[in-house]
Structures are given as structure tokens and as C-alpha cells.
Design brief:
mainly alpha; 0% strand; elongated
């Protein structure tokens, strides 16, 4: 079965996935600039973004697993 069209879920999944990847690569440079006190909030932000990407993945591809 082929995907019908791209929906808001597919675009959101793409945007959030790219955003998580960029944040993972920029983790050390950003924290070097802002200071060590932002390590935990930034890590939670990356974790929350990854969870959102996983949820969007299952919203978009969920019917393949049923």
C-alpha cells in the first residue's frame, strides 16, 4: 500500500527529526557558550523532542504495524 499524500504529520516528523539531529550535534558548542547550568534542561529538551518524533512516526506509519 502506498502512502496517499504528505500530511501535516509527515512534515512535522521530518522537521522534528532534523531538529533533534541538529541539537545533538550542537550540544557541546551550545553548552560551552551558555554555561554548565543549562546541561540538564537542554538534555530534557532533546529527550522531549525525540519522544515527539517517535510519536509522530507512529502517527504517520502506524497503520503499517496493525
Amino acid at each position: 500500500m502506498q502512502l496517499q499524500t504528505y500530511t501535516w504529520k509527515s512534515y512535522m516528523f521530518l522537521i522534528v527529526s532534523i531538529f533533534v539531529t541538529i541539537n545533538l550535534f550542537l550540544f557541546a558548542p551550545i553548552l560551552d557558550r551558555v554555561g554548565i547550568e543549562y546541561v540538564v534542561p537542554f538534555a530534557y529538551f532533546i529527550l522531549a523532542s525525540a519522544v515527539i518524533a517517535i510519536i509522530l512516526f507512529f502517527l504517520w506509519f502506524g497503520y503499517h504495524f496493525t
